[in-house]
Input
Amino acid sequence: MKKLFTIFSIALIVFSCKRENMDFEGPNLQDLNGTFGFLKPFTADKNLVDFSKNETVNFTAEFTKICEWEIIIRGKTSGASKILSGKSRNLSVPSTVWNGTTTLFPTFKAEGCLATLKITGVLDTFNLNIGVTGVRKPTGFVVANFEMGMNSKWTSFIQSGASMDFKIKSDKFSVEGNNYMNMSGIVNWDWLIGLVNFPGTAYSASTNYNLTSVSDDLYFNCLIYGAGNNVNTSRVLFQFKEDDNGNGAFDQSSDDQYDKEIIVDWAGWKLVSFKYTSLQHLVNGVPATNNGNSKHNSNKINTISMLHLANPANGLASTKVDCIMFTEKSPLEL
Output
């Protein structure tokens, strides 16, 4: 009898332990099936923000259950959009901090913005007004943002085709700042529409770009506009020409050249970023052996060439570029 009582006691203890553990398994039923409501309202820590001074806006709220949420911030003048999203019971740092960056271009201006909170499964939306008094300043080595027009030390070549438009413009397509480079035309005998050379001498007394020697830290960034033209897709080819032998110029026979060809198969503005050490030397779009030391030496970049290419058999090709920049450690944030 004593043995039977002992077995019963052990079984009771095991069952109690399992029952205790079961109480903590799985999500709270309130989080799954509860009615949505606010425990703390949707608010922002400021209604005026100056991103040029590295200020930020932090949105907060607390819900009665775990929710899938999205905050969409839209510029009332620019049409720019920033999207923050998550799944949680509350809005909290860092997922709800806006530092002035953009999700859908163009970039924000000094303007009024509307921040809208949307909850999955809830018809109502919740709005806040935010005034931007200063815009975010992109940081890095600027190759070209076209705000001051054409640098006198840049050189260019433009084909004499039809409907040629290879100019700096300021209009409704402006994406960052006021100006951008437009590149379009019909060249029915050659893939090249036109090109711009950006020599290192345009930026310093040296013949090379004043960039980090740690090439693996370096990113190249550019905003590119796709016309959504399925007939003749534009290509933007960047050529990075190094001065490996140190004679102050790029020699094709003895120096390295690294290339990036971007097929512009999208519509609207897009930020393109890539690490410098990811680049290969290309000949007619095919990887080839370099003629220099075959090492990425970012501090020896002597000239950057930007070419607009398109199939000569397919008529008009068009694209736009802006905010050509180098950044270190990470891609550009706009």
User: Anything to note?
Assistant: The radius of gyration is 28 Å. The first strand starts at residue 38 and ends at 44. The domain at 35-134 is CATH 2.60.40.2550 (Immunoglobulin-like).
